[in-house]
Amino acid sequence: MMKNSLNIAAALGPLVFLVILSLLGQGAHALEVPTNMANLNNLRSAANIQHDNRNLHDVPKNYYYHDKCEAPPSLCGKCDKCKTCDTCGYQRGYDYYQAMLEEWAKTEEAQVADGQWYAPADKTIQCGATITGFTKLNSNLICNANDASSGLVLSGRNAVLDCAKNSIVGPTGTSNSNSIGITLIGGATALNCNVQGFNVGVLMEDGNNIFKDSRVVGSGGPGGGDNIRTRGEGGCMTIDNVETSYSDYDGIDADHNGVINIYNVKANGNQERGVRIQDNVECANLEDIEAVGNGDEGILSESTDLNIINARANGNSDDGIRINNPTECANLENIEASGNYEDDGIDVRHNGILNIKNAKLFRNEDDGIDIDSSVNCANLENIEAFQNEKEGIQARSNIVNIINVKVFENRDGMELLSLIECASLENVEAFGNDENGISLSSVPKVGLYGTITSEFNDQDGLEIFCNISPANGGCEVKVFADVTLTGNRDDGLDFNGDGSGITFTVDACGSVKICSNRGDIGGDDDDDSPTIDGEITCDEINDSVVDPEGEDFECQEGCFANVGSAAACQSPVHAYCYPKPEW
Predict the structure, then answer these.
(1) Are 308 and 321 in contact (CB under 8 A)?
(2) DSSP string, 348-384
(3) 80: number of Cβ within 10 Å
(4) Which residues contact 566 (CB under 8 A, 6 or more apart)?
(5) Residues 6+ apart with CB under 8 A from 287
(6) Residue 52: how many CB atoms within 10 A of its CB?
(7) With left for phi above 0 and alpha for psi between -120 and 50, is residue 433 left, alpha or beta?
(8) Which of 420, 434, 348 is nearest to 388 (CA)?
């Protein structure tokens, strides 16, 4: 009934909306949390919250528009890009099959039948065979318990197996505990294969082996087993256009000393991880990956360098993507991680550099993104984190740069915790979160850039907590942005803890609007009021300096004030507040 009344009221206009609010009763429960952008715009309209210059009465243009302002300084260092892994000459889309076939046709062993090149007819392929040249299967290969517990071995760069969509089937029951479907050694290639029923489906060892255009399912048995496993020294392993699902252990377990390229892979429904990259791997390229419904992480990586592009990691029992030490650099781009029902969408615990660009993290059991304190530097760009059980984004890394981010309908939209040395936020929108929109907890240095908006959260729009004493530098927040904190059920801006350690400075090119919140400005007591420089709204003047509790404040339309030193106010910043709604 509440939602229907509010939707009708929003359609009829602001006055009707406020009348219905008063009939429904005062208190925090009278404001519906938006579930989408349309409802958010309705709430803005109903509360008379403007986001343009129509109500800026007689304000000089340069107070609101910052055309002549210089680019603000960057407080935090930028993270470096990670190196791209060596692909060892492998080119996606190149017809390796045809090229290898042509090479095989030149050999003395080759013979032609029905227009296709085959291994000589007198060489019958049996389970346990070792292949050193070109071989094409004409039928399914059934390997039972009497076949030396192994399928086929391909040895050397001239070894090519084309299964022609035929299956290699391993023993079932207790007899497959040492069985391997296909073993690739020293640069061998297998393609067009269906492999199932072995302890390990495909083993790739030592060299630039290639496994492509294939399907591996149901590996396992006593002691468990991986669908695809890499081991050995050096080389560059490539897995391309492969489905690896429903194993008793990992879909892919890479643990060789070298490079792994994993392209266009579906790793779903495995009892442990979809894709696991262990710490022996120097560099991993993962592109076009689907890791869904696995019993542990969708993707777990410990490689030195990691690149993940175009990946879906959804519905896994642990993290969608987890990155551990000793990773030095990780690039993630075009990522979706959702519905991971025991942990985070992305969980980062390595001690190097992290770059995440273009990601959607939603409906995870824990955080959308959780960045551990071990991470040296993190860049997050073009991120949406919404409807996660805990924080949309939680970070404790040394340096964090957050650009073009929306966090909504989480517990906290964004929580930046102690151990961060410097945080930079640019173009951030937080709305409809169950607690705070943006929470800064004992972060020594924070810069706000572009546009920062935090609206209609159940607690504070922007919470700043500081337990760092002024003698140790305190907590400094510099505002180079146009900041809007409106419609929150508690304070628009809340200074918690020992507020004496907080310095909140608005640059001449920044502005702050704190309006139509239930509390507007919060603080613990008069003695702990933070230092505020620059020109802030009337809310901040009255509530932060005069009445930190913010209980009796009535916002006055169109007010200005200068706070702090005269030098800080030589270039006054327009800060406009709107009539406060009846709560």
Answers:
(1) yes
(2) EE-SSEEEEEEEEEES-SS-SEEE-TT-SEEEEEEEE
(3) 12
(4) none
(5) 262, 263, 264, 307, 308, 309, 310
(6) 7
(7) beta
(8) 434
DSSP string, 138-155: SS-EE--TTSTTEEEEEE
How distant is the alpha carbon of residue 565 from its chain centre? 42
Name which of 143, 212, 211 is nearest 178 in CA terms: 143
d(CA 436, CA 459) in angstroms, rounded, equals 5
- What is the phi/psi pair of residue 358, to 5°? 60, 80
C-alpha angle 35-37-38 in degrees, rounded to nearest 5: 95
User: 186: phi > 0 → left, psi -120 to 50 → alpha, else beta; which?
Assistant: left
**Cα-flanking dihedrals φ and ψ of residue 67, to 5°?**
-60, -35
* Paired tokens of 432: 């409809």
- Picking from 218, 214, 209, 125, the residue whose alpha carbon sits closest to that of residue 166 is 214
DSSP readout, 231-279? Answer: ESEEEEEEEEEEEEE--SS-SEEE-SEEEEEEEEEE--S-SS-SEEE-T
The long-range contacts involving 419-425, CB below 8 angstroms and separated by at least 24 positions, are: 419/373, 420/395, 420/396, 420/444, 421/445, 422/75, 422/76, 422/77, 422/398, 422/446, 422/447, 423/76, 423/395, 423/399, 423/447, 424/74, 424/75, 424/76, 424/400, 424/449, 425/449, 425/452, 425/481
For 54, residues 6+ apart whose C-beta sits below 8 A from its C-beta are none
DSSP letter for 563, please: B
What is the rounded CA–CA span in Å between residue 81 and residue 386? 27
Contact call for residues 20 and 14 (beta carbons, < 8 A): no
What tokens were used for 375?
């991470």
Encode the chain (583 residues) as per-residue pLDDT tens digits. 333 333 333 344 443 333 333 433 333 333 333 445 455 555 555 554 444 333 323 323 222 333 444 566 676 777 766 666 666 667 676 666 666 666 666 665 555 444 444 444 335 688 888 888 888 888 899 887 544 457 899 999 888 898 989 999 988 655 556 789 999 999 999 999 999 989 899 999 998 899 999 999 999 877 678 999 999 887 889 999 999 999 999 999 999 989 999 999 999 999 999 999 999 999 999 999 999 999 999 999 999 889 999 999 999 999 999 999 888 889 999 999 999 988 999 999 987 899 999 999 999 999 999 999 888 889 999 999 999 999 999 998 888 999 999 999 999 999 998 777 889 999 999 999 999 999 999 899 999 999 999 999 999 999 998 888 888 888 888 888 888 888 888 888 887 755 567 888 877 677 787 777 776 555 543 333 344 444 444 344 333 332 333 333 333 333 333 333 222 222 333 333 333 333 3
- Output the six-digit token pair for 260: 């792994």
Residue recorded with tokens 């029992």: 317
